[in-house]
Amino acid sequence: MQACPRDGTERHSWNESRPRFVARREGYTADEHPRSWWHAREMTSPTDIPKLASAFASEAERFVSWLDRATVDEGPVLNMRELHELLGLLQAAATRIPAVAPDAETPQGVEAKLNPPAAAKIREKLPINAYSVVFDPLEFDPLEQSSPQPVMATIDNDLGDIYADLMDGLALYRAGQYQDAVWQWHFSYYSHWGRHLSHAQSAIWQYLSAGNWA
């Protein structure tokens, strides 16, 4: 297996020449995204935005706090059943985020990543980490002659990327920029961290289903 080429350190940035979000790792921009907020604004009342932002922020905070605690507590191994549940709740909450346009022309989140010692602690506490995955499960060869080859991914990288994208939105939410936070969480879910969550959940489920649920 080869390392997943989309698991590099370069994440995403604003294009300085245009007010659009550039998802460089995935190879497309917001206005090229198949579910682009540019064209798919849902009928969401402005008065609903703070409530929607608050609902998702609660789940985002729950996950972020859990991961932060895991980096400092003395437990030898992460509770994978608890992590499985947290990721499930987070994904369910993400499906309820509407597609909206950002309120600010160039919303500024933060580049809040787990620091290297914290990331190393998470990696040490995972009972499993590396796993194989097919990047796009909808891409297949019916004749099974040239099917896509699985690549290697790691749960610690998945958790770190989810953490960083959630923190981007939380920074906007804490600054009172509720619509920008909702936009950031929705767009980054469908362009980046949702893929990491789904892949990690599959690996964790496989681990738990082998009798490791205690």
Query: Would you tell me the structural class of the helices and strands?
Result: mainly alpha
Outline the biggest β-sheet.
Answer: 3 strands, antiparallel
* Element string (H = helix, E = strand): EEEHHHEEHH
CATH class: Mainly Alpha
User: Mean of the pLDDT scores?
Assistant: 81
Task: Calculate the terminal CA-CA distance, rounded to whole Å.
Answer: 30 Å
Q: Categorize the overall geometry.
A: globular
Q: In percent, how helical is the residue content? A: 40-55%
Compute the number of helices. Answer: 5
Question: Largest sheet, order of strands side by side?
Answer: 1-2-3
Overall number of structural domains? 1
Query: From the alpha-carbon coordinates, what is the Rg to the nearest angstrom?
Result: 18 Å
What's the total count of β strands? Answer: 5
Task: Note the quaternary state here.
Answer: single chain
